[in-house]
Design goal:
Helix content is about 20%, strand content about 30%. The two termini are about 25 Å apart.
């Protein structure tokens, strides 16, 4: 269910803006600021968070790039204390004319990113860096191969929308259940294996799905994202079993169990 702004209740005093100290002004030089406009559950465990504001209109973004979100939500303490931890999220959609960008946050575990996604409220200020990153489409590839799980699907979504209709697309996007699948362009060309209660870390299910793909003899461009160990397994398969050059394989690890900063 979506949550949007509602008018101020009659008789309720308007919230006073917090005075911006030296720390806030310093952070303004290195971070953009937006506000949460809406939150909406678009899959079983994924929430779309719509951000907006004047600074969003000035951003330059390529499909596949991400933001570094400050996950702190506290109202007290220094500006730096309120920032919290930084976590990386791929941009699902960017509309510079409307001054909006959308993130899709998977609710998994209890790390600072998952907590931020669960508790984001309309009107909440969000600081972020980016967009940034080189995990983007190669224009000269004869075809594109995508492989990853739920966290990777957010990056894949806008990338798939950008692939010209005449360029072939292959791949496998693993989810726990059908209800976890995001609406992906050209999804009919992708294998969509289900892992059920199995772990997404070092996923043999996703590796098997990629192994069984009927790919052209020559290499294309591969985009592997999501859990770090699974990415390594699929990359080794492409290099050692399909004779792909490493330069044709583009990777973006978003998380792995037990590693601080990737939760």
């Amino acid at each position: 269910m979506a949550h949007t702004d509602t008018p101020q209740s009659p008789g309720r005093p308007a919230a006073q803006p917090r005075s911006r100290g030296l720390g806030d002004r310093l952070l303004d030089r290195f971070f953009h600021t937006a506000r949460v406009l809406e939150t909406e559950r678009i899959a079983a465990r994924t929430t779309r968070i719509r951000l907006g504001g004047p600074e969003v209109r000035e951003l330059s973004w390529l499909p596949g790039q991400q933001l570094r979100i400050a996950t702190g939500t506290g109202d007290s303490g220094s500006a730096f204390a309120r920032m919290g931890d930084l976590r990386t999220y791929s941009v699902w959609h960017h509309d510079p004319e409307a001054g909006e960008l959308h993130l899709c946050v998977l609710d998994h575990g209890d790390g600072p990113g998952a907590r931020w996604g669960r508790t984001a409220q309309v009107g909440q200020e969000v600081r972020f860096r980016g967009p940034e990153g080189s995990f983007t489409l190669r224009d000269d590839a004869p075809y594109h191969l995508f492989a990853g799980e739920e966290t990777a699907a957010v990056a894949f979504g806008p990338m798939l929308r950008t692939v010209p209709a005449h360029v072939p697309v292959y791949g496998a996007v693993e989810t726990a259940t059908e209800a976890d699948r995001l609406p992906l362009h050209r999804a009919a060309t992708l294998a969509q294996p289900l892992r059920g209660g199995e772990s997404a870390a070092a996923s043999e299910i996703l590796l098997t799905a990629v192994r069984t793909l009927d790919l052209p003899a020559e290499p294309g461009a591969a985009y592997l994202a999501g859990e770090a160990r699974t990415i390594q397994m699929i990359s080794k398969h492409l290099v050692h079993e399909r004779n792909w050059p490493r330069r044709a394989i583009h990777t973006k690890p978003f998380w792995t169990p037990g590693r601080r900063g990737m939760d």
